[in-house]
Amino acid sequence: MEHFCDLLQHSSWIIALDSSIYISMFFEICHYAGFFLLVGSIALVDLRVLGIAGRRQTATAMAGQLFPWMWVGLIFAGISGFFMFAADAVDFYSASFFRLKMLVLLIALAVGIAVEWQVPRWDRKPSISAGAKAVALISLLLWLATILVALEVPAINGVG
């Protein structure tokens, strides 16, 4: 895998993209905006399931409005994240915090998608169960962990 990262990092098109400050800034802005959309939309639905936010509408209605934005955010964060990774692929790949971030991110995404699929079922009941609320709380905590670990990637390892 390290060989692939080295090839990726030294490919001419990645070097060309990374050598432009404007393109690099564009990818960073897209990455942060994508994460704001991704985490924000999931967090609002989680908070609705917990009964903290959006009490005037059903969880299904809120999820229907917000989950398309989750997917847009995921696409923005994923594509821009790939290009940001590619510019320093060897350093990122060897950074333990980066690998931890990716692991926690994948788990958070899996739980977030599970919430998306389950919200209509949970909403059909007279009240949202304690189990559903526990899943929503776990989702929130996983996204918080993803953000906190992501902050440590450049700070601890000096990459990015």
Task: Please give the number of β-strands.
Answer: 0
Q: Which spans of ≥5 residues are poorly predicted at pLDDT below 50?
A: none
Structural class: mainly alpha
Q: Quote the distance from N terminus to C terminus.
A: 19 Å
Q: Profile the largest sheet.
A: none
Order of helices and strands: HHHHHHH
Q: Kindly state the mean pLDDT as a whole number? A: 89
The coarse silhouette is elongated
Please state roughly what percent of the residues sit in beta strands, choosing from under 5%, 5-15%, 15-25%, 25-35%, 35-45% or over 45%. Answer: under 5%
Count of DSSP H/I helices:
7
Rounded radius of gyration (Å): 18 Å
Which oligomeric form is depicted? single chain
Q: How many structural domains in the coordinates?
A: 1
Helix content: over 70%
Describe this structure in words.
With 160 residues, this protein is mostly helical. The protein has one domain. The chain is built from 7 helices and no strands. The protein has helices at residues 2-9, 12-18, 21-49, 59-87, 89-94, 96-123, 130-157. Helix 2 packs across helix 4 (59-87), helix 3 packs parallel to helix 6 (96-123) and helix 3 (21-49) runs antiparallel to helix 7. The mean pLDDT is 89.
